[in-house]
Structure prediction request, 335 residues.
Amino acid sequence: MEVERVQAIASLSLTTDTIPAEFIRPEKEQPAITTFRGPVPEIPTIDLSDPDQENLVRSIANASKEWGIFQVVNHGVPTDVITKLQAVGKEFFELPPEEKEVYAKIPGSQSIEGYGTQLQKDIDGKKPWVDHLFHKIWPPSTINYRFWPKNPPSYRDANEVYAKYIREVADKLFTSLSLGLGVEGHALKEGAGGEDIVYMLKINYYPPCPRPDLALGVVAHTDFSALTILVPNEVPGLQVLKDDHWIDAPYIPNAMIVHIGDQIEILSNGIYRSVLHRSTVDKGKARMSWPVFLEPPGEFVVGPLPQLVNEEDPPKYKAKKFKDYAYCKLNKLPQ
Ligand code: OGA
Ligand code: NI
Prediction:
């Protein structure tokens, strides 16, 4: 069966002021109604090059406890590396449909890798206004180049270079997050799979939408990764739920957005919180984002770090294989 891409629907909607009913969210989700417009506290921005290690650890730990999300600047990934990653991803999404379909997800496959569009509707029978491409970028033994676009030709190089830099950012974050819990610097990375942690890149492509007041890109969720490190394009759209209000994440040039995912919440026994977030879409411009999900290998068991659990602080989460966690989450089953 031919899958209908949101990009194709969007190009048909260009000259109209309407969108198909299946994209119109119920009122309790519509961005025009639910976005908080009052004065809001700002999502923390953290300078990763801060030479004061204690200060850095404290800021990262506080942001992860209170927000579960923060932006990082001076993260060590050169601007031109990010610009190239964005340019090749954009070029891919601007290819004619038949060229993108070569990379389509394989129907019936267990893997999420490939070019795709969410097929099943949400509980409300609604669809998100977004297409995506998923593929792994690290470790090398897990990469399936079948899902890496061959066009533009520099796609592979741009993604390999990015993978090299993003691992350094990840290591730095894992270390600070561990020290912020009062455990050894390597504890969280080890607890999430160590050198076997899988780096899954997703490119979100949110086409221009005639009714951004009614539609949503990705709907409210927490990431089931350990950490997510996201690069956006210049079109804002990420929102996070803070104190029961949906607030906008400002676009900060050259910053990367870090989400605490469910696995870090579990490892920290609830001290760090995975953040509920969603994305809105834009009337005139395509929004794009490049999250990298840092995931434990499927067979790897994740549970609260033993150092954080005692009689006063019993484990708040079950230890389970990551693949079982992911299965329950995707199928909306209790953990
Ligand atoms: C996601 C996500 C947000 C964004 O893909 O999991 O939350 O800003 N994306 O695109
Ligand atoms: Ni997310």
In short: Residues 155-179 form the longest helix (25 residues). The chain has a mean pLDDT of 95. Residues 202, 204, 218, 223, 230, 232, 237-238, 277, 279, 289, 291 surround N-oxalylglycine (ligand 1) (CB under 6 Å). The two ends are 33 Å apart (CA to CA).
